[in-house]
């Protein structure tokens, strides 16, 4: 799995197509989407276009998508949902299939269905997203296959200081979503100071820090110039001292977490629906 990829959260199908094609054209080899984002069709179109423009084959890139909360359940339900996702993406398989959120009533059963799909060869790896330690421990006890990754919010002010070591101790890779803290980390005084010191953008400083922390990172941008810039983190290194300085920014503040969702907490602000976008599968 490439350790730097493009994500397409809150991106419509047209923009997802253009962003994904631009990313592949400019050297990205990992693309991350989800049923909940409502843009798998656009992402698939972007993959096809990008591969053609770059002269690459399907096996040259790594594609991740996620099992939607409202489609969790037994094998038949999960398999049907997954086949729809493959159709929307225009792919024969995905490299990584994640459970998007641990819906309490179904996450064990849903993961068993994902294990079966893995054994059928339709998925090359399976994992989870947004699993705290309690739910991860329950999943590990009940499952056959250790999740390849746990995709979590991870950025300078939220470094998952409890979840990261727990996952690492069980050979679960941490993947960062919102690696720039929703943009908030870009204006941090220390990040700005280091950007001047290394003559880099604030985003490049953060992404390089995550690279040196051995965190797989999914970064979103819809502008080709920024997509390119975000990938240019391999011709410099942060000193150990500066890495430690950024480590000290951790406040354990999550922008979004499990209890915000209505299907877990009736008072939550987020419902069990396609995230902000029309359902393109109707």
Keywords, separated by commas or semicolons:
single chain, 282 residues, alpha/beta, TIM Barrel, eight-stranded parallel beta barrel, 8 strands, globular, disordered C terminus
Produce a short descriptive summary:
Belongs to the aldo/keto reductase family. It contains ten helices and eight strands.
Describe this structure in words.
- This protein is an alpha/beta fold and 282 residues long.
- It has one domain (4-184, 213-235, 256-260): NADP-dependent oxidoreductase domain (TIM Barrel, Alpha-Beta Barrel), CATH 3.20.20.100.
- It has helices spanning 13-25, 40-54, 75-89, 107-119, 133-142, 163-169, 189-198, 202-212, 224-231, 240-247; strands spanning 4-7, 30-32, 62-67, 96-99, 126-129, 149-153, 173-177, 216-220.
- Strands 1-2-3-4-5-6-7-8 form an eight-stranded parallel barrel, surrounded by seven helices.
- The model is unreliable at 276-282 (pLDDT under 50).
CATH class: Alpha Beta
Q: What characterizes the major β-sheet? A: 8 strands, parallel, barrel
CATH H-level superfamily: NADP-dependent oxidoreductase domain
Broad structural category: alpha/beta
Indicate how many domains the architecture comprises. 1
Rg over alpha carbons: 18 Å
In the CATH hierarchy, what is the architecture at level 2? Answer: Alpha-Beta Barrel
**So how many helices?**
10
Strand content: 5-15%
As a percent range, the share of helical residues equals 25-40%
Number of beta-strand segments: 8
Catalogue the unreliable spans.
276-282
List the helices and strands in order.
EHEHEHEHEHEHEHHEHH
User: How far do the termini sit from each other?
Assistant: 32 Å
Give the strand order of the largest sheet, numbering strands 1, 2, ... along the chain: 1-2-3-4-5-6-7-8
Give the CA-based shape.
globular
């Amino acid at each position: 799995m490439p350790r730097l990829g493009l994500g397409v959260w809150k991106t419509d199908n047209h923009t997802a197509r253009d962003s994904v094609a631009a990313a592949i054209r400019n050297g990205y080899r990992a693309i991350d989407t989800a049923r909940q984002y409502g843009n798998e069709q656009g992402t698939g179109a972007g993959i096809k276009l990008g591969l053609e423009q770059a002269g690459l084959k399907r096996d040259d890139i790594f594609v991740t998508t996620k099992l939607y909360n409202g489609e969790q359940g037994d094998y038949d339900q999960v398999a049907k949902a997954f086949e729809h996702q493959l159709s929307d993406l225009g792919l024969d398989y995905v490299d990584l299939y994640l459970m998007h959120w641990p819906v309490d009533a179904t996450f064990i059963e849903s993961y068993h269905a994902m294990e079966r799909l893995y054994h059928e060869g339709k998925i090359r790896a399976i994992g989870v997203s947004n699993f705290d330690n309690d739910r991860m421990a329950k999943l590990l006890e009940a499952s056959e296959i250790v999740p390849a990754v746990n995709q979590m919010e991870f950025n300078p002010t939220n470094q998952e200081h409890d979840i990261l070591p727990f996952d690492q101790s069980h050979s679960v890779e941490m993947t960062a979503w919102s690696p720039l803290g929703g943009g908030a980390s870009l204006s941090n005084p220390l990040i700005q100071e280091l950007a001047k010191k290394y003559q880099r953008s604030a985003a490049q400083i953060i992404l390089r820090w995550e690279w040196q922390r051995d965190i797989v990172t999914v970064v979103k941008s819809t502008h080709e110039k920024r997509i390119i810039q975000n990938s240019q983190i391999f011709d410099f290194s942060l000193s150990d001292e500066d890495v430690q300085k950024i480590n000290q920014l951790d406040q354990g503040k999550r922008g979004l977490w499990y209890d915000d969702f209505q299907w877990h907490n009736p008072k939550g602000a987020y419902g069990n629906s396609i995230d902000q976008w029309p359902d393109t599968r109707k």
